[in-house]
Design a protein that fits this description.
The protein has 382 residues and is an all-alpha fold. Helices cover 69% and strands 2% of the residues. The strands form 2 sheets. It has a two-stranded antiparallel ribbon. The radius of gyration is 23 Å and the shape is globular.
Length: 382
């Protein structure tokens, strides 16, 4: 049954995209670990981590496209789910430090010792176990999304009002996580990680494995999203996006469909945040900043809303430009470039990069078919 769903969900573009992910999953670690540093084909470790960060952003963009591109839910707070997954991973990594911290306390993280905490808070207890941390990585964003969605969708909050509420949610979480009495590192957040499941975080091999896991997560997230959007469930989501009142009139429980896809999307964002943290080495309240969630919306818009592949492409393109324009003399112009890019896409490429390319390919194919039809010799009647 699962194999049939996978086969039915993959078209030519999706197959090519999965093939490309498989290629970089193997090629990048091999070029990093097996090719000598002096070679032109060597991929340095810092670049592996940078690409891994981009892949995590691509998963976040894909999760946002799932709710915005196919269900019409414009979430301006998806960065909150990403950050919550990151904090869950960060708490696990902090518990692995043990007595190797600055204050050499066997149980308490350094920031708790500095703040004169006497014992570990109860909600930190289970994070010494990786399976428990993995459960929290998906459960915390999922439960928050379910609770928020239950209240918002049952109350039929939609459109710009829902977008504003999601932005208020992530802003409220940012303010809360800045507080030292939250027991989550306050302004400095969580950092100075040592090990992950027994392996040094900074080791070259660990970096390569984290990159491979990130690419694998992107592939699995894409397959899950494709299964959802190409199924009958996905057809209802598109109907809700295009005509919610008519869909409700036909007897569909619109709020249930919204709730399911919103919760699944939040879990995917949490997983992306969890793999992001060990690759960048820190998680702090700035990840909850509303600007991060808005930037994720720009990724999806640039790549192509409602295409899934476009969301991943947009995340890569925008963050690549960001890496270029936030270094050296160009740093002061990044926000202008980002704003200009969004305006350009909105006016000239309303369907984004991938959506526009799909239209061009479809138009070319149509012209070829019409030309062949005009040039065909009709059969002689007997």
């Amino acid at each position: 049954m699962i194999i049939k769903l996978l086969v039915d969900s993959l078209d030519r573009r999706a197959t090519l995209f999965m093939g490309f992910l498989g290629l970089i999953l193997v090629a990048v670690p091999l070029l990093n670990l097996w090719v000598p540093e002096g070679s032109a084909f060597h991929v340095p470790t810092y670049l592996v981590s940078l690409l891994g960060k981009y892949v995590c952003f691509a998963v976040l963009a894909l999760s946002l496209d799932l709710v915005w591109g196919y269900c019409g839910i414009l979430s301006l707070g998806h960065g909150a789910f990403f950050a919550l997954g990151g904090y869950a991973m960060g708490m696990y990594l902090m518990r692995q430090i043990g007595s190797r911290g600055v204050y050499a306390h066997p149980t308490l993280p350094d920031f708790m010792v500095f703040l004169n905490w006497k014992e570990l808070p109860i909600f930190w207890y289970g994070f010494g176990s990786f399976p428990y941390a993995l459960l929290m990585i998906v459960a915390v964003p999922g439960v928050l999304a379910f609770a928020f969605g239950w209240l918002a969708f049952r109350s039929r909050v939609a459109g710009v009002y829902l977008s504003i509420i999601t932005q208020a949610l992530t802003y409220a979480l940012m303010l809360a996580f800045f507080r030292n009495d939250m027991g989550l590192g306050g302004n400095n957040g969580l950092t100075d990680f040592k090990d992950i499941v027994g392996f040094p975080v900074q080791a070259q091999g660990t970096r390569a494995v984290l990159f491979m896991l990130s690419v694998a997560l992107l592939g699995m997230s894409f397959l899950l999203a494709r299964i959802l959007v190409t199924s009958a469930f996905g057809k209802v989501l598109v109907a809700i996006r295009d005509a919610e009142s008519r869909t409700r009139f036909l007897g569909y429980r619109v709020e249930n469909y919204k709730l399911v896809v919103f919760t699944v999307s939040a879990m995917l964002a949490g997983l992306a945040g969890a793999l992001y943290v060990p690759q960048v080495g820190i998680i702090n309240p700035s990840e909850f900043a509303p600007a991060n969630s808005i930037e994720a919306v720009i990724w999806v818009a640039v790549g192509g809303r409602g295409t899934l592949i476009g969301a991943a492409v947009g995340a890569f393109v925008v963050n690549l430009l960001k890496s270029v324009f936030t270094t050296g003399a160009l740093a002061a112009y990044w926000l202008f470039v980002l704003g200009g890019l969004f305006i350009l896409v909105t006016l000239a490429l309303p369907k984004g990069i991938v959506g526009t390319l799909e239209d061009l390919v479809a138009a070319k194919r149509k012209r070829i078919e019409e030309r062949d039809r005009r040039g065909a010799v009709p059969e002689l009647a007997e």
